[in-house]
Fold Protein FAR1-RELATED SEQUENCE.
Amino acid sequence: MTTSRCEAFHSHLAKFVNLRICFTDFVEQFQRCLSYFCFREIEADFDSDYGVVTLQSGLHSLERSASKVFTKTIFHMFRCMLIRAPTVMRVRECHETSLYSIYSVLKYCDCGSICHVCYCPSTFEFKCSCLRMESFGLPCDHIVTLLVELDFSEIPKCLVLDWWKKKCKKVYSWKICR
Ligand SMILES: [Zn+2]
């Protein structure tokens, strides 16, 4: 992810600077590039805070709940999963322990790619063996499938990381001020 982030930044920067410009021009152009990024961020924040989301999945409660907490960009990614996952994934079996329930989730007609989702009913925590949540910060198809299977009407807090929240900046700027 770090490499792809650097490459994305280089590609954006290349729109503003080239090899032939002198150092003072570089600084000026770099400043323009940063201003452009700031503008894009403000635009994205505005987009997230205003406007009404049109619900597209058949799982309105879960989709509405996600639209209230996620930024618009992340919400769109989550909604794609919400529409796709329950149609292509199946919850095959459940193994209960005293604290957790471990579900086997697999793709439709593909018994080779089983993932195990661990769910703790007392804390509403989910962990999947694919570790997508831990690496990317968004719940995977397996967890989304299980949310639907278990009739969740709201997205659990443990599946919403602070930096994908709409209110993230307000919360952190408030903490910094204190
Ligand atoms: Zn998974």
Residues 115, 128, 130, 132, 140, 142-143 surround zinc ion (CB under 6 Å). The chain has a mean pLDDT of 86.
